[in-house]
Structures are given as structure tokens and as C-alpha cells.
Write a structure and sequence with these properties.
mainly alpha; Sodium/glucose cotransporter
């Protein structure tokens, strides 16, 4: 039985809409929030080179595998895996890939909307001029006071969740496509504006030097592991989102070309975010290896010290919010698509139901920063840390690992060849080597290292 021509949920109207949607899934808080501070902690330029290599040899092959599986199945990740294992007489245990991805995405969504809500809050704070002329102590206190008030966190969590539910409830064309048509071009435009602003600062040369100076002494085992982990997680791999989006890809679209473009766009945003943040940080004599507080303490402080800082600080957090919403809608899609298929339910009702459940689960993240800040769970400092660790360090790596193995060894060569547009030969050997050996081994190394550490 050949794969279906179209998904029942609809199809991307063009290759470029899929590129924008998948890039929107990949471009999120991981690029703008996480990449700069990880680069800062691991020596800047050396880390960037490692990251690019990992994107090429880990991220791209696994993303290709996830898209081809989704396009071949044309259903939600769970039902796609059910269909393909039955069709090709494979072990039904492979269906766990779909279940794991949906579960991981749902758990990630529960805390993602909380963190994304912080960006909405900082749009208001920057726009009001509350941080103008603030000292480091002022910026730190503002963030700390914000986290100490659960009702405020819940309010912004609710606003962001409502935005996500509204978009995904409208379907592929009216919801997902419309959102990425507007949000992604605006995201790139805002990034360009901020990059131009960063180029005018005194710290521009120092920031560029920090990002691109290649220092062999900085290439440590920890830096390699950090680069591998960031390359994997930044592309939204292993959580079913790319597989779900792959189900909506037209049959005549080249998977290799589109995935390569997505990886380039994702990397450009991550590097550009560093080139925006680090010059501003250096201009104000701040520490580039601040860790997670870089975006919510150091960056607001830096903008507060600069001419027109309120304006450009507001633009920065609008950009962060755009990146977060495009990721959130992709994370929602796998679970939503499955429930619509399984129960023939209205998409809008399923979206609201999932949103409410995820919102309730997200309260655990909210309280992890105040009421439950001292309550450890599963060896982690808080419930938020436990959920984040479980998804990021366990569920996503295992999901990506088995996606790669399924595409390389469980799917017939004819299916893979038809989806990728290759007829075997040297390209087929290279594909099997990279997808079936190099990428899984790299992911396994990251996975074991995370467990050991």
C-alpha cells in the first residue's frame, strides 16, 4: 500500500510554507535564550564551529528521517508509526516512538508556555521604561520579584497558552500557515533590526571576536557534548513535531533541500542572536557566560543602560515571543492530530482541552519558582528541573535515536529512496552510514553523558 497523497488535517500550500513552519518550530527559546549563554560558557567561536558540525552530521540526518517518516505515514506520529509497522510487518514496539514524541512534546509545552510568558511580561517592562537606568541589582531584583509572585506568572502563562490554543485550533491552513506567514518574516525582520543596532555599539568588535575566534584550547569534552546536545534540541527533534509537520508536506518537495534550508535558517538565527546579545553585553561590561539569567537579567539591564534601549529592548522581547509561539504551536500539533484522528473530534475542542490540561500541568513549573522552590523531585532541585531534565535528557534523545534507526533499518530501501529521491548507490550508502550509525552514536553519547553527569 502506497503512502497517502494528503493528510486528513490538510497540507502545506507550498514548500516554502513548510520551510517557514519547520523553521518556526526549530527557532525558539533554544536559539535566542539558550544558544548565546551556552556559547558564552563554552568559549564562543570554538563552540560555534562544533555546533555547525553537529547540525550537519546529527541534526540534518535525524530531521530528514523524521520528515520522511511523517510524509510516508501522513498521520499523527502515533498513527503514522502504527501504519508503517503494520504495512511493512515490523515489530509493533516501534510505535513507542510516536507515543514518546507526543508525551515529550506535551510535557515540554506545559513548562514552555510558562517561560514564554516571561518574554511577554518583559515586553511590557521594557516598553514602559521600567528598566531605564537600572543597576544590576535592580534588574536582578525585578526578575526575582516576578518569579516570587505566582499569580503574575500564571497570568502571563494563561495569555501565552490562549494564543497557542487559538492558532492551533484553526487548522493547518487557517491556523498554522497563517501564523508562520506573519510571525517568521517578522522574526527575521526584527532580528535584522536588532543586529543593525548591535553593530552601532562599542562592544560590536568584541562580540564578533568572542563569537568567531577559534581557540583550540576551548574544545573540551564538555564543549563537544554541549554542542551535540544543543544541535539536537534546537531543531525540535524527537518530540513528534517535525514528524507531524512532515505529514503535511507535498509529495514533490525535496526533503534534503528543505531540511537543509531549515537547518541553515535555524543556525543563522542562533548565531545572529549571539551577535545581538554579546556586543550589548560587552558594551556594558557585563559577563557573557551568565547562564540562563542572560536573557532575563543581563540583557534587560544592558538595554536599560543604552540610548533607545527601551525601544530596542521591547523589539528584542517581541522577537523572543514570536520565536516562542511558532515553537509552541508545533509542539502542540502531534497530540492534537492524534486525538482528532482517534476520536474524530473537532479540532477546536481538542485544542482547548489539551490547552487546559497543559495549563494545569504548567502550574507545577510556576510553583517551582516560589511555593515549591525547595521541593526536590527525582534527584532534581525542583519539579520544573525534573520535567525539563526528563524530556531534554531522556525522552528526546531516545526518540531521535530510534527515529534514525527506524528510518535507516526498519523502512524498506524503496520507501526511503522514493521519499529522499535517491536510487541507492553511493548516496544510499552515505545516507545509511550517517543516519544509521554516525547520528545515533552521537545521540547515544550525549544521552549516556547526561545520565552519568
Amino acid at each position: 500500500m502506497a503512502s497517502a497523497t494528503e493528510s486528513r488535517h490538510g497540507m502545506w500550500s507550498s514548500k516554502w510554507l513548510f520551510v517557514l513552519a519547520a523553521a518556526g518550530s526549530a527557532v525558539g527559546l533554544g536559539n535566542i535564550w539558550k544558544f548565546p549563554y551556552i556559547a558564552g560558557q563554552n568559549g564562543g567561536g570554538a563552540f560555534v564551529i562544533l555546533y555547525l558540525l553537529c547540525i550537519a552530521f546529527i541534526g540534518v540526518p535525524i530531521m530528514m528521517a523524521e520528515v520522511l517518516i511523517g510524509r510516508e505515514g501522513r498521520q499523527s506520529p502515533i498513527n503514522t508509526m502504527r501504519h508503517l509497522t503494520k504495512q511493512h510487518h515490523r515489530n509493533p514496539a516501534w510505535v513507542l516512538i510516536g507515543w514518546s514524541g507526543v508525551a515529550a512534546g506535551f510535557l515540554i509545552l506545559s513548562y514552555y508556555v510558562v517561560i514564554a510568558g516571561w518574554a511577554l511580561y518583559y515586553i511590557l517592562q521594557m516598553g514602559s521604561g521600567a528598566l531605564h537606568g537600572a543597576t544590576a541589582e535592580d534588574a536582578g531584583r525585578m526578575f526575582s520579584d516576578f518569579l516570587d509572585h505566582p499569580l503574575e506568572l500564571i497570568f502571563w502563562q494563561t495569555v501565552f497558552m490562549a494564543m497557542t490554543v487559538y492558532i492551533v485550533s484553526r487548522g493547518v491552513i487557517s491556523g498554522l500557515e497563517t501564523a508562520v506567514r506573519w510571525f517568521m518574516p517578522l522574526l527575521f525582520l526584527l532580528m535584522f533590526v536588532l543586529l543593525g543596532y548591535a553593530m552601532t555599539t562599542e562592544g560590536w568588535r568584541q562580540g564578533v571576536d568572542f563569537m568567531f575566534r577559534f581557540d583550540l584550547a576551548k574544545i573540551t569534552p564538555d564543549a563537544v557534548l554541549a554542542a551535540m546536545g544543543q544541535a539536537f534540541f534546537t531543531l525540535s527533534l524527537g518530540m513528534g513535531a517535525i514528524m507531524a509537520y512532515g505529514a503535511y508536506v507535498p509529495s514533490n518537495t525535496s526533503i534534503f533541500t528543505t531540511v537543509s534550508i531549515i537547518a541553515v535558517l535555524d543556525t543563522v538565527v542562533a548565531v545572529a542572536a549571539g551577535l545581538v546579545i554579546f556586543p550589548i553585553v560587552f558594551t556594558n561590561g557585563l559577563e557573557p557566560a551568565q547562564g540562563p539569567g542572560l536573557m532575563f537579567v543581563t540583557v534587560p539591564l544592558a538595554f536599560g543602560q543604552m540610548p533607545l534601549g527601551a525601544l530596542f529592548g521591547t523589539i528584542f522581547f517581541i522577537l523572543v515571543s514570536f520565536a516562542a509561539i511558532t515553537s509552541a504551536i508545533s509542539i502542540s500539533e502531534p497530540a492534537l492530530a492524534y486525538l482528532v484522528e482517534e476520536y474524530n473530534a473537532k479540532r477546536s475542542r481538542v485544542a482547548i482541552s489539551l490547552g487546559v490540561i497543559s495549563w494545569v500541568l504548567g502550574l507545577g513549573t510556576v510553583f517551582s519558582f516560589n511555593y515549591w522552590a525547595d521541593v526536590g523531585v527525582g534527584g532534581q532541585p525542583t519539579l520544573f528541573d525534573f520535567v525539563s531534565w526528563t524530556t531534554d535528557k531522556v525522552m528526546l534523545p531516545l526518540g531521535g535515536l530510534f527515529i534514525a534507526l527506524f528510518a535507516a533499518f526498519a523502512l524498506p530501501k524503496t520507501v526511503v529512496g522514493a521519499q529522499l529521491g535517491i536510487d541507492g548507490g553511493l548516496l544510499g550508502v552515505i545516507w545509511k552510514l550517517v543516519c544509521g550509525l554516525v547520528a545515533p552514536l552521537a545521540v547515544l553519547i550525549v544521552f549516556i553523558s547526561a545520565l552519568v553527569s
